[in-house]
Amino acid sequence: MLLADASVSSLGNTLAILLGIACLLPLCGFLIEIFAGYWSDRLSKTPALMAVGCIGGGFACSLLALILWGNATCWTALKADEHGAAHHSVRDDSAETQLALADEELHADEHSSAGADDHHAFHPEVEHHVASEEGHDDHAAEGLVPAHAVFSGTIYRLAKFGNLDITVDYYIDSLTLVMFVMVTFIATCIHIFAIGYMSEELTHEYVDHAVHMSDGHHLHRPGRFYRFFAYMSLFCFSMLGLVYSGSIFLVFVFWELVGICSYLLIGFYVERKSANVAANKAFIMNRVGDFGFLIGLMILWTSFGTFRFAEEIDDHGQAHAGLFHMVRGDKGLMRVSSETGDVVMWGEHEETLLDENDQPRTIPYYLLVIAGLGIFAGCVGKSAQFPLQTWLPDAMEGPTPVSALVHSATMVAAGVYLAGRFFPMFTTDVLLVIAYTGCITLFVAATIAIVATDIKRVLAYSTISQLGYMMLAIGVGGWGAGLFHLITHAFFKSLMFLASGSVIFGCHHEQEMPKMGGLWRKMPITALTMLVGVIAIAGLAIPVTIMGARIAFSGYHSKDAIVATALAFTEANSMHFLLFLTPLVTAGITAFYMFRLWFYTFAGDPRDKHVYDHAHETPKVMTIPLLVLSLFAAGCAIGGEEGVLYRLLSNSEPVGVAAGRMSGAGGISLPSHEAIHLVHAQAGTWALIVAVLGAFLAYVFYGARWVNPTEVGQSFPRLYRFLVEKWQFDALYDAMFVRPVRIIAGWFVVFDRVVLDGFLHAAASSVVHISKWDRRFDESIIDGFVNLMASVTFGIGRSFKKVQTGMLRQYITFIALGVLALFVLMLSFFPN
Amino acid sequence: MNGGQVLFGIFALLTCGGAVAVALTQNVVRMAFWLIVSLGSASGLFFLLNADFVGATQLLIYVGGTVVLLIFGVMLTTSGPLLKIPSSPGELIQSAVVGVLFISMFFFTVWSVDWEHVANTARVHDSTTDTVALQNDTTGRPIGMAFLGVRPDRDLGAAEGQPLSTGYFLPFEIVSMHLLVVLIGAAYLARAKRQITTAESRSEVV
Amino acid sequence: MMTTLAASTLAEFMNGYVSPELALMLAALFHAGVLLLVFAHAALIFIWLERKVSGRIQDRLGPTRCGGRFGWAQGLADGIKLIQKEDLIPRDADAFLFRLAPYLACIASFGGFMVLPFAADWVAVNLDTGLFLLFAILSLEVLGIVLAGYSSGSKWSLFGGMREAAQMVSYEIPLAICGLIPIVAAGTLNLTDVGQMQVGHFGNWFLFHDPFTFFAFFVYFTVATAGCKRAPFDLAEAESELVGGFHTEYSGMRWSYFFMAEYASMLLVSGVATLLFLGGWSTGLPFIDQPIFVDLKSWNPGIGPEGFVLGSYISNLIGMSVFLLKSSFLVFVQIWVRWTFPRLRIDQVMTTCLKYLVPMSCFLFLGATMWPLLMAMGKGQKTTIWPQPLGDRTVQVHEHVLHPINEPKIQIADRGEQTVDFSETPVIAKEAILTEAMHSPSEQGIQP
Amino acid sequence: MEGVDLKLFLLVGAVLFVCGVICMTSKRNGIGVLIGVELVLNAANLNFVAFSRYTPLGLDGQIMALFVIVLAAAEAAVALAIALNFYNNHLTIDVDRADELRG
Among A25, A222, A250, which residue's Cα sits nearest to residue A157? Predict the structure, then answer.
């Protein structure tokens, strides 16, 4: 909601400028790096430093924006109840965590009498929350900014064609701020890590061992250090712009920019065929999704006449409702006309929006469903959901920092982010589709990850699976849980990717896990940080509550929230019980394959002596980002749903989610926060048990090696093959799309050769025959005539050529005499 | 006999005399000198006609520019000092005949047309204030406006509902482009080149 | 043109005694005589000044004895000597042109004074195209030089003439462009108007109008120095290479004519610089300008013939002395420069002009034209189509150009935007706009 | 200007024109021919300006004269460049020598 209050608008302007700078800095970096880098020395590390500086500056700006926002709201966002003391002295993230801890302490003291399990004590807090919201309103009257305020506006109007208004808008709420801080922070870490990882490119002659030339040599090419960082900067710019933008059209623009950046970076080693193919695959798969996106855009434009999320104030000071408001109104309710079944749009002031004929403006329900599905199709492509998930594992062809960036903060996050941002526009039918899509994806990807041996591919499948979790959460109405998981996942997944990059770098580009083992002795920091990530993603926790919170890493909290939401959803809609069971089972699988990865890589005895002997710990420039990230992977979600992060996010939650009012047609009812909290402890316990089970199994198979996993695999050969073949998706797509096209193309070839070519040949030969006759006619009659004319003209010209004396002055005399003659003629014929 | 007539007499005499001297002189530099006299006096005539902008332009471009250019040309193309290329008497007589015929034609025309009638009947449009701007010596601003496409000299006193007159914006732009092209073209044509000896030029011609 | 001769007061004075035409003629002749005196005395005084200044710069005394103190009569003595000298004409010379060339050079630099106002009311011909005509006349000087060089029949002279022609033709371009820059700010070519605009506080001087005019003044002064073929640009008479350049073969009075022309045109270009940039006859101090140039004008004690206003006469006299003082200072700077800097080579002279001064002046001209736009944008006024989005522009073009009947709004952007609907109030609106466009700046008058 | 007739200006223009034509037809020097052209153009200018003063042609006559002056300057520049080339190729400026294309 855009408030006309002066302090709000000035804060909004400040935030818009700060975030705009954070967004544009990487673009400047990109421009300088790509143009200056080409001419400069290829041995210079300057591009990397510049890129780090740009994204670091972006991080500083984002952080400043967050702090300003917090100060303006008096950190009411973090205060769940009235006893939360106002902390104005927050300086940075770590201080924030401390603050959160302090909060937790107070909290625990307050409720220690309410029982050991904190979640039961949440009941009265809901009321507190409501009460404090009223208190917020009082604060707002005193000049404070409400924490749930949305700052939106227009920066520049690109074009206006009739009603079609193409503008550069921004839309800032706490989600935007958190995304900005998260993206810039992780990107900074990854950039720093990449300085070390990409240092091999700092050369005039890089030898690419993966490319074999026709003469048997490896490819030699100039290093492309600067280009890598330029692309990375562009990537960051695109992602930040996507988060920043306030209209679905602009989102689409940055959406495509993200796509092209991932294309460039996945295909960074252009000379490798596999990289080429992977880049193309990623790009084309995304286009499939974007097709749906475009359809959604068109429907939105024709039905709503605007692309903006938030209200727009036109030149006359008149406010026009944005997309979200039109569908949901102030209370988060979608009004469906009882007669026609159409959705009636809300106006700016809770009135019904009227069209030119003073009839209520409506959109048919099915169109809204199609629009939602279309937009979600875009998210499916970008976030690698079923059935477009196959590009993501192949994207491992890019350098590892790219994978880290793609998998945590930028590319795939964009899909989930958009699904979250666009949540108010989704009807329950669409949400159900989203939930099932996420459900299928998370299970499929997790099962494939069990048998994958490439260290990066395991991580890639785990990413797909976790994205499935997020989508599932959004689909079952757990808006906060899904985005919570998005943020925590970003931290631990970037950590794990960087750690795997460290392993790969340390093992001289060996990626196959069967050749590793026992590496913890060689690279302790990497092993340790990786373990942090593994525990975080597996969702392990100690089932004891200390000071009101479980001792657990970030993944536990977020996954817990998702499973709880799913459970609450299934309790309300019992026919969709799979939506709870699948994620629960998959939680175990996740723990299993992640620990499998760790044990395979770091524990036990080395399997390949050669690799082990040459392995070494990576330099500090790579390990320090690992350590920093591991801190955040462990602690960013501290406090769970009472913690800082979740509270920040929940301020952006669409109206009505908390009360479960999103229900619409279709008989699906979404759980309210209250309902979720009722089952929270139950779900958390289930998830923990399953995860511990998974981790223990992994120890049995790979840690202690009591059971030989290969034998297990051989005893189920068909299932094993099925999983190794990635559920045969590639084969399926081949059979479904590629082969039919080829067969049809073959028919067309035959048709071309026989019918079309035959006709053309016949036509050609007949033309040749006709033209032979024509030639004779031409040569005898037409040429004869022309030659005759020519010779006549030639003769005449020959006789007249003497007139051309070449004497300039004679010509002038002739002209003068000619004029005189004309004059005389005129006089004699027209005497008057 | 008033001041205007006296001045006209002086300027007209100088103009015609200069022109005749140009026609009669054989030395090119002297021809250029007489051309200066003639053109400069012509600009005096322009001033008499209240066309001060045209007169100044005439001085600046013709006398200050073109004639200097001509003298340059003379200096660059003279093979000896004070060179003369005399014409044959026959040619002189021939051109004299043409000249006499021409001037008789002009005299005939000028005398046979009723100019008062032309001035009164050939009005382009009904406007009594048409020449207001021309009579008080301020032609610079109206000419500038006309080049920009606005015609205060025509439209100020025009009747209501009459369409606005057109200016000369497009021709002005075209002429400026034309000048640029000429500048480049002339510089290209006149750039220093290898001098061809007489023998070479002969052989090339044949 | 007849009516604009500033001699009208004198002519009116004589009106009662002779016929009006004759009175006008006599007045014109009188004024021409006055100008001739200025012209001749400029040379006389500045030659003496040159000697003194060069002497002081070279740690000498310069002329000391002639005429008593400071050698003030040195120029006069020189003149007498030159008149006495024999008037030589070489055998190879083209005698006719040789004789005429010095007069041509003199006429050119003398003619420029015709439109140069010395004070608010003291100008021989008050033309609306004043500066334009001045530059036109100034460009004629080269003809005399070239003809002199050519007709002398000497290779030194010929080279001098050629160099002079090339140099002056080239330097005319930046000269004219730099002269146009304050004209862009002023909006009129009438030099009297330009001078009147700058009366008052010295912030009114066009030198301080905007950064571009400020730099344009220095470019103009450099170019003007070169245009007068003064050192360090005096290649036409470079005595170390060409003996005496175009005047090698001249002697006596004809020789001195060239010098009179040179010093007169120095005064002329300095006067133009004073008028265009340095505030003309204004002192730059409003508390002096206001009483002298505004209040005193209407003071009429009734002395002298009818129509003669004593206050106006005194005000103009003071104005003229201020003007001449400023111009003489610039001439002094030219002399100072001559005796300070070494002479350039001919290719350097041409390079300086064509490669540096022309682009610089073009840039300054461009900047001066853009300056009001920038100022307007700085003040937040709507100026151009720039901030409009693409679609709006398309729609506007569509509406205004393709279908002008629907919305007959025409914008004339001239000194502030005025949107006038021609269809509603055709005559009055058109009158207003066109009239304003016709006479905008010259009626601003004095703004102390 | 009272007392001077339009005819007189036209006659002066006629004299200029004829002198230009005579120049063009009689001078063997290429630059002489050019000078003749200038005279002819100037005669036209004089007529234009005279008409602009004495007839309702108004400013358009003066503007035409300006265009003529500008184009004449352009013409002179190009013609002189041609003359220089001619001189470079023939070592003379005599236009009668430029008869390579005679019939």
Answer: A250
C389 to A159: CB separation less than 8 angstroms, yes or no: yes
The nearest CA of chain C is from the CA of A24 a distance in Å of 21
The SS3 call for residue D56 is: coil
Closest of A652, A346, A323, A611 to residue A486, by C-alpha: A652
| D21/A812 Cβ within 8 A | yes
Kindly state whether B107 is in contact with chain A, defined as any CB-CB distance less than 8 angstroms. Answer: no
Least Cα distance to A710 among A596, A610, A598, A562 occurs for A596
Q: Is the same domain home to C364 and C404?
A: no
In this predicted structure, the answer to whether residue A663 has a pLDDT above a threshold of 90 is no
B104 touches chain A (CB under 8 A): no
C130 closest CA partner among C365, C340, C373, C442: C442
Any idea what DSSP says for residue D29?
A: B
Do C370 and C394 fall within a single domain?
no
The two tokens of residue B47 are 């001033």
As a residue count, chain D comes to 103
Strands (E), A359-507: 362-363
* Helix/strand/coil for A371: helix
**What single-letter amino acid sits at B174?**
I
Which pair of tokens denotes residue A64? 């400043």
User: What is the structure's pLDDT at D14?
Assistant: 92
Q: Omega of the bond prior to C20 within 30 degrees of 0, cis?
A: no
Assigned domain for C251 exists: yes
> CB–CB of B98 and A809 under 8 A?
no
Cα–Cα distance between A252 and A247 in angstroms, integer?
9
Q: Are residues C277 and C419 in the same domain?
A: no
> Which tokens sit at C157?
């002279």
* Cα–Cα separations (whole angstroms), residue C358 to B185, C172, C222, C320, C353: 20, 10, 12, 33, 6
Q: Which CATH number fits domain B1-112: 1.20.950.20, 1.20.120.1200, 3.10.180.10, 1.25.40.10?
A: 1.20.120.1200
Say whether B115 and D34 touch across the interface (CB within 8 A).
no
Instruction: Report the distance separating Cα D18 and Cα D24, nearest Å.
Output: 10
Phi, then psi, of A408 in degrees rounded to 5: -110, -60
CB contact under 8 A, D24 and A812: yes
pLDDT digits (tens, 9 = 90+) for B71-112: 878 877 776 666 677 778 888 888 888 889 888 988 888 888
Which residue type does A485 have?
A: H
**Structural domain for C360, as ranges:** 89-377
Domain count, chain C: 2
Residue B137 and residue C3: Cβ atoms within 8 Å?
yes
> For chains A and B, what is the number of CB pairs under 8 angstroms?
16
ipTM above 0.85, yes or no: no
Contact A159, C390 (CB under 8 A): yes
* Mean pLDDT, residues A787-797: 93
For D21-91, the fitting CATH number among 1.10.3720.10, 3.40.190.10, 2.60.120.10, 1.10.287.3510 is 1.10.287.3510
C278 and C267 Cβ atoms separated by less than 8 Å: no
- The DSSP line for C125-162 is B--TTHHHHHHHHHTTHHHHHHHHHHHTT-HHHHHHHH
Q: What is the pTM of this model?
A: 0.54
**Can you read off the two tokens belonging to residue C2?**
């007849």
SS3 A208: strand
How far is B125 from B121, CA to CA, in rounded Å? 10
Nearest to C142 by CA among C263, C248, C261: C261
pLDDT exceeds 90 at position C203: no
Contacts of B55 in chain C (CB under 8 A): 133
Cis peptide before A222 (omega within 30 of 0): no
> Most D CBs within 10 Å: which of A804, A807, A808, as the mutation test of the D interface?
A808
3-state secondary structure of A653: coil
